[in-house]
Structure formats: C-alpha cells, structure tokens
Amino acid sequence: MDLWIIRLIFTLLVALASYLFRPFGLQPLVAIGVGVVIGAGVVIFENRLRQVSLKRLIGAAIGSILGIIGAYLFSNVIRNSIEQGSTQSFLQLFIMLLMAYVGLIVGAAKGDLLNLSALGGIFGGEKQQKRSQKILDTSVIIDGRIADIAETGFLDGTIVIPNFVLRELQLVADSADSLKRNRGRRGLDILQRIQKIASLQVIIVDDDFPAIREVDLKLIELAKQYDAKIVTNDFNLNKVAQLQGVDVLNINELANSLKPIVLPGEIMKVFILKEGKEYNQGVAYLDDGTMVVVDNARKMIGKTIEIAVTSVLQTTAGKMIFGKFDERGVASRPVEMPSAQRRSMAPQPSIPAANSSSAAGPAAPQPATGIERTNE
Question: What pairing do the DSSP bridges indicate for beta strands 281-285 and 267-275?
Fold first, then answer.
C-alpha cells in the first residue's frame, strides 16, 4: 500500500512539473494530462522492472551501453558521409534508438547466462533467491493438494503462475463439459486460496513463448529462464523436465513418501471390492487409494479379510501392494450356520407330563414301546 502512495505522489509531481513548465508550448490542461500519462508510464515500467531478475537487469544495462557506444560510432560515419540536415539528424537519432533497443533486448535475453554467484557479496544470494521460485502446473492447481501443502508451511518462497497457465485454466472453466468446467473452477478457487496465504509471495508473469504450442514445454522453458522448479503431478512432464535438467517437485512422489510403510510378511485387514485380472484374484483399496491385489480372494468379494503381504511395488506413478489370502485359516474356523437352521437343529427340552396336562389339557395317548411291554 505504501508503494502505491509513493507512486501516486510521483505521478502528481510529474503532472505538476508539466503544468508549471508547459513543455512544447502546451496548454495547461493538456500539459497536466501529458504529465499524468508520463508518470503512469514510468510507474508501469517500474512495476514490470521489479519482476525482472538481477541477471537480466545487469545484462540489459550492459547491452544498452554497448548499443549506445556502437550508435555513436555509426553517427560519426553518418556525419562524414551525409550532408548536414534533417536526413542526417533523423538517421543519427534512428541509429541511436535502434542500437540501444537491440542492446537492451539482447542483453536482457542473454543475462541469464551470467554467473553472479561467483562474484560473492550481494550477488551471491541471487541464485539462492531464484532457486526458491516455484512454477505451478495446471494439473497440480486443479488437483488442489498444493493449497493444503502451502497452508501447512511446507511450501515457501515465491510462487510463479504464468499467464498461459491461467488461460488454460480459463478454457477448462469455460468448457461445455460439466466435469471439465467444475475442474477449471476448482483450479481458480485453489489459486485464490494460495494467494491468501501470508507466507507465500504469488506473482503472475506474462512471459510467453509463441513459437512453442505445448504448455508443458512452455513451463520447462520458463523454468530455465527463471532458474526455478516446476510443481506438478504430471508423470510425463516430470520425466521430460528431468531430461532437460529442470528440477521438479512431484506431488504424487510426496504423497507416496508419506504413505504408511508395509513390509512383506505383515498381516493387514482389507475389504475385497472386486475381482482382479488374474485367476482367483481379488482387489481392495486402502483409505489413501492404494490398490491391494490379493491372491485366492475372488470368493471373498464384499467381505473384510486378513491377508499376508507378499510384496510392495512403489513407483513414481503410485504404489501397489500384493498379498495372499489363506483359505485354510478360514476353513479351520467354525462355520457359522444361519439362525433358522440353528434353531431347527437345537435339542428340544423335555416337558414333564403333569405340567403338560395342566397346561394343554389331557395328554394324548402315547404309543407303546418295547420297554413298556416288558414292564407289564
């Protein structure tokens, strides 16, 4: 806020100076307008200049100085070759502007090749400051976990969001497909959450590479230009960036590293959800989404069982756990029968005849048995 107050005061001072001196014989109101325009232009230029790295500033300054020196030499040639007049003055001014412009652009572009850390002092921290910059990919913004990581304080430094990533998010948010539209709007909401985090500095850069069409390749070139890291969960972008020497922070790798470690031989309980691809296999999922492939568990679909872990396969794309279900352990347990069958097979208690007669009337005649005939 204080910077904007200073900028406003500077613009008013330029407008006041233009009103008092009235350059080019301008009218008072026109002079004030010209002063405001000049002051606003300087403020915009200063705001853009703050986002430029120290390497680029030094490279642009060196390029401009060399361009002006070259323009002075060309001006001497023009002065000796062309008669004095408007043509000579125009060519001299044009050569000076051309050389200064070319030197500025080329010097700024090649300034990233400077190794300021070798000079030490205040230049030694430039590389460290730039290495703390992180560029967000579209996929990691839509994913949403980056906001939770940032809020916990594990993500620091400067977050760089390119304009071409914002354009891609806007295209997704404006899609006719409701699923894509919701994903795009979710990504925009995540960016707003990240901007509200006080410990992070979020900047939006206009750097673009018109010659490159793919957004992933643009991110890699921007990371090289800013000497920054790419934050993504795209497996393919991760591999391509590493091949080109760009550091990548993969959210999936972070999530995999935080998952509970399961060792072969351990016993764990899982819920068999569906059958697997191979014969007699069942598939279960842990709470964090890890797939568990269980042998001999096809018949246990829809049940929670105990399995023995046989192996764990962990890659950058995710983790898979392989286990085995012991059918013999289940077979050795007592089989639980249905309640109706248990009641039918349960022994009936004997009721004394006296009690039976008093409760239900005269007792029915009992068939004679061999024992009774013997007693008689």
Answer: antiparallel
Q: Which domain holds residue 139?
A: 125-257
CA-angle at 120, arms to 118 and 102, nearest 5°: 60
Per-residue pLDDT tens over the stretch 99-135: 888 888 888 777 766 666 556 555 554 444 444 789 9
In-domain check, residue 339: no
At residue 333, the pLDDT reads 45
224 pLDDT more than 70? yes
Residue 230: in which H helix or E strand, if any? strand 229-232
Distance CA 204, CA 191 (A): 11
Within this chain, do residues 111 and 141 fall inside the same structural domain, yes or no? no
What is the spatial distance between Cα 30 and Cα 292, in angstroms, rounded to a whole number?
A: 76
Q: DSSP characters for 251-275?
A: HHHHHHHHSPP--TT-EEEEEEEEE
**Per the domain annotation, does 164 fall within a domain?**
yes
Q: How far is CA 256 from CA 65, 316, 318, in A?
A: 52, 8, 7
- The two beta strands, 267-275 and 229-232, are unpaired
pLDDT at 294 over 90: yes
Domain containing residue 248: CATH number: 3.40.50.1010
Q: What does the DSSP assignment read for 297-310?
A: -GGGTTSEEEEEEE
Residue 364 lies in a domain: no
| Neighbouring residues of 285: CB distance < 8 A, sequence distance ≥ 6 | 273, 291, 292
Confidence (pTM):
0.43
315 conformational bin, left if phi > 0, alpha if psi -120 to 50, beta if neither: beta
Residue 283, number of CB atoms within 10 A of its CB: 18
Q: Report which of 266, 294, 299, 291 is spatially closest to residue 281, judged by C-alpha positions.
A: 294
pLDDT of residue 143: 86
Number of domains in the chain: 3
Single-letter amino acid, residue 61: A
